[in-house]
Amino acid sequence: MITYEQIRERLAAAIRESGLTQTEIARRLGVTQATVAQYLAGRTLPAPDTFANLCKILDVDANYILCQNENEDA
Fold first, then answer.
1. Quick check: helix, strand or coil at residue 48?
2. CATH architecture label of 4-65
3. What is the pLDDT of residues 15-45, one digit of tens each?
4. CA–CA distance, 67 with 21 (Å, rounded to integer)
5. How far is the C-alpha of 34 from the C-alpha of 28, rounded, in Å?
6. CB 28 within 8 A of CB 56
7. Helix H segments across the chain?
């Protein structure tokens, strides 16, 4: 069973591993740096449209973040 925590962990890891600053990600998404910090800390998840754009910015497969690719490691 996929948990909210697993999704939050994968999203936070993708943000950390992107090499982009929180400020740069925020600018590209059109949100505040504090919002990106919330994603990174696992306090909240982005809205679906923001999530899709964030996956593009991070160059990560949304299915991986959503734990749909069971054969991939975190």
1. helix
2. Orthogonal Bundle (1.10)
3. 999 999 999 999 999 999 999 999 999 899 9
4. 24
5. 14
6. no
7. 4-17, 22-29, 33-41, 48-58, 62-65
